[in-house]
């Protein structure tokens, strides 16, 4: 049997972009739950349904994954309970179908029916997702397999984490004004930071969706019409170390590849 991979994850990200879209989503939620949800839960279910429809809109193959662990909803406008309730209801009425059961090494993959393929519903990002993730240290099993650590609550790292969030907000404000632009008017204008050792002074880096693009495509991008370049930081360690040591060294004008650096 062919193994499937999801090309889009359902994650807390979207909200209705206008009143007509919100009304359409409210009617869908009321139809799904037969108007039994309380006002607060109804609002949360609308956010959750936005994320399902948003994933469908951005999926090329229609293969979706839906991770429902508690840490995925720390900064979301709804919790795991609402997400599970919505998923179970969508499965029950047949709007969502399991096309691959989750098992060791494979995620569970879903496909939606036409009822959730709503091109008329307009969505936008709500900005409630965390700009900074802190994860517990990676776990290594006896067989050598690595498992990514779970997300940790921000409250464990206050007040320092607020400074880190402010830094990413500043970067995103700059990127919104000067976005990365690719072919076919595709734009990348935001990023987030992840710390992977359960601490803020080690194991952190910035991530953005442009990093998923092939290198040759990335190098064809522009910022304000100017071409971009990529710097190999690991390949620059010797130079950076020498710079930090403040001990000058004489470098040959000819590189290791035989190129005259003065040209």
From TrEMBL:
This is Replication protein.
């Amino acid at each position: 049997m062919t193994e499937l991979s999801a090309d889009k994850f359902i994650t807390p990200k979207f909200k209705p972009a206008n009143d007509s879209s919100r009304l359409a989503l409210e009617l869908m939620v009321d139809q799904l739950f037969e108007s039994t949800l309380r006002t607060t839960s109804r609002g949360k279910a609308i956010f959750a349904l936005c994320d399902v429809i948003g994933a469908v809109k951005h999926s090329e193959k229609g293969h979706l994954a839906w991770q429902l662990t508690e840490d995925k909803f720390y900064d979301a406008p709804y919790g795991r309970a609402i997400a599970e309730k919505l998923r179970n209801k969508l499965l029950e009425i047949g709007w969502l179908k399991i096309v691959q059961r989750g098992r060791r090494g494979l995620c569970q993959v879903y496909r939606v029916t036409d009822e959730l393929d709503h091109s008329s519903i307009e969505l936008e990002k709500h900005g409630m997702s965390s700009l900074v993730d802190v994860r517990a240290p990676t776990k290594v099993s006896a067989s050598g397999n690595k498992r990514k650590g779970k997300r940790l609550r921000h409250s464990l790292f206050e007040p320092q984490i607020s400074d880190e969030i402010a830094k990413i907000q500043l970067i995103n404000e700059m990127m919104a004004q000067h976005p990365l632009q690719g072919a076919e008017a595709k734009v990348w204008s935001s990023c987030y930071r992840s710390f992977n050792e359960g601490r803020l002074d080690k194991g952190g880096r910035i991530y953005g969706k442009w990093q998923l693009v092939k290198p040759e495509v990335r190098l064809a991008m522009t910022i304000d019409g100017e071409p971009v370049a990529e710097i190999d930081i690991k390949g620059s360690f010797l130079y950076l170390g020498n710079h930090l040591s403040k001990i000058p060294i004489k470098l040959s004008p000819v590189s290791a590849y035989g190129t005259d650096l003065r040209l």
